[in-house]
């Protein structure tokens, strides 16, 4: 079957320049907005999930959904840390396990734009062994255990007051000195770390919130969270099933990746819903625009269609030609939209993760995945917008078509 | 001014007019929803009571204040009533089923929050019964609970040692008359929580989350707030006392750039729809070139032809945009129910409608101005010769 | 002897096309009496259509004066020309130029919107004009539902509904078949003989010209000759 040459479509689009341009820009604006939201969601979720490790285990109190809810008494924590066989040791025989205390503390934002909740984490030297290179001191030095010194995550430095090297931060009534800035690819970069016992005293938090550990390779934690399971319910197997029934220290255990993913569920879901809603609503408007443009193009080219038909091009060829044109419109719109959205890549923003009520700073990430989805979306728009006009074009009888002019 | 001409021109291509109007409706609907979301975020601040102060820990939202503070607070000059509020942080069956629950003093609560209106059940029972609760009608309807039922709550923060959920008898159901309190909260007796923890039947943080103070008439807010903070300056927990508006505002400010973000989305939507409408108007105008020539030949002035094309655009936009705004208003109550937990107080306000209406007219104007100007300056002779 | 309705004095118009200047009307002097049916003839490029457009206030000469019913319209600005046109001129075009979305009656009513008339008055006048051209039964039809000849008659009804001083027709029979053309020309003739309308018709068809009382020949923008005659039977 002979196909209508593509140069015909290209030239037609060019001849009706202003209409083509407006349609492309309209689709472009839609794609840009949707990409922006997708990039925001991507930036947020990858911050957490990408940095979560599968070889670090998090222990929480039973029933707790995050470490803020969780608590371990000193005694119970010691029992778990000293006796659990699955906990790995390093070459020096030191068990790679640490109990942390955690509190979201009120701090003022630098710009005077109000307050925010900053996570403050009390850690011990083994914590750094557990995380290894994930935590790197970027400036200054690490805090000395047992002293009133803290290190501040890089992302807090220009967002929150008193977080520069050398500053003094007061928790409740106790002052702490900032002796170092640390880097982390994940959410720790928005936290303040210090000696666990000193912080727990200053903040009047006598209990521990969670325990982190590196497990012996091959340990099966066996925890399936609600969002990852097929029936929407939590499943416990292996270690997590055993600890659930433990007599001395009943608790929950999961990988750090599972824990962090769980933290982001609500906000991630909100952003995904927002993105879908926007895509749907704006997409509908964009499809209408594309249809309008194609219909007008059709009306103007009626006689051309008649000529093409009388020359021997079959209806299917005409249909394909118009569909192709619509897809071209969509594609151009998609590319334009991605170009509009690109400047957003890397733009830093921050918001409150309302599951944990803490400040989280992240950046827009326009990944290839986002771009592909955006362009795919624009192609769909072109397809939907062009379907009806293409059908009408193909259905036009040649005599009617030529009589119109 | 040939009015029938305006209307008839628009319907010359009914499908095109419909599509354009429909995309306008969709865009304006979206803009109304976005703005309403932003407005809803602020609602706690705007509708805050002027005579209530919130006393919280100056360190963290998550730090509790000693119960002993209650008596001291009550004795401060200018304080008429004191009420304890503890965030319970539980959920119904699944963590996704999130809504607010507070352990509080029932009598003080009802005295200090006149906007809470009991619509069914018994006030007395809520006050007297230890294990009773007062349930918001939104949550009651969502999960199908009536007065007399037992509401099971799984405690995430406060866990029972027997592993069972907490159970509260629904003594009464309330509706809030102002958006300072939402319609989805569950209130129960602080004493019940306290006694259960004391008896070793449950674990959880000790102390009081926040104290709410009611100001005596004529008392100075700022003075009372400073007096409270000064009283507890030395510890054991330093306090930060704020008006209800400031307290609610802190949550909004924590959310950060959301209003900016949403406004940018709105801007993008506006641009997209303006381009689409402009496209349609230009297409329509191109086809009307000869008609414009005829009108001018007949003696219609340049100005009247300008008015004709501009009116066409305005009419179409008002029809489409108006439909979108109407849709947003009509769906308002429905949306409020769905978004109830995250955006309590979602409402399509008059301000939103006004803004949307102005936007609609602006779009109609900007989309129509180019073809209108073109028509105004068109030479009659070339217009008549045109083949459009 | 009827009075002079139209007086053209030293009217000149030059167009530039592709860098070349073309003198479409060259220092033209002409007088036309009221109540006469004129035919304007000449080869293509002779300036007859340009002249017609100027008489209708659609175009302006580069120099010279055009005085119609005592008013020099070359001095009018666009707004004044529009107003003057509405009151004084009725156009009939080769391509009919009816507004497709309006019915026949609405098309005829259109020029009346520019006059301070009530809705009822407009309607009555339009219906009367349609009756004059013999299309009362087609009032509610839209142009697409009419034949070419019928469309042109509606256009004529539109041209006379304001009772203008002057009717200007540009090749009114150009797009019509033989019998429709004859009907239209007959109608124009009647408007002139019975209602005393002054009609200027541009045409290149000698048969059509035979309906006119005076034939003005133009050649290369200048007056060729004026033929006064008695209109022949059509």
Describe this structure in words.
The complex is a heterotrimer of chains A (405), B (388) and C (234). Chain A is α+β, with helices and mostly antiparallel strands and 405 residues long. Chain A has 2 domains: 6-48 and 264-404, no CATH class; 56-216, no CATH class. Chain A is 47% helix and 20% strand. Chain A contains 11 helices and 14 strands. In chain A, strand 6 (168-171) and strand 7 form a beta hairpin. The mean pLDDT of chain A is 85. With 388 residues, chain B is α+β, with helices and mostly antiparallel strands. Chain B has 2 domains: 3-45 and 257-385, no CATH class; 59-237, no CATH class. In chain B, strands 1, 2, 3, 4, 5, 6, 7, 9, 10, 12 and 13 form an 11-stranded mixed beta sheet that branches. In chain B, helix 12 (302-338) packs antiparallel against helix 13. Chain B is elongated, with a radius of gyration of 30 Å. Chain B starts with a helix and ends with a helix. Chain C has a single domain, classed as Rossmann fold (3-Layer(aba) Sandwich). The radius of gyration of chain C is 17 Å and the shape is globular. A 6-stranded mixed beta sheet of chain C has the order 6-7-8-3-9-10. The two termini of chain C are 26 Å apart. The mean pLDDT of chain C is 89. By secondary structure, chain C is α/β, with parallel strands linked by helices.
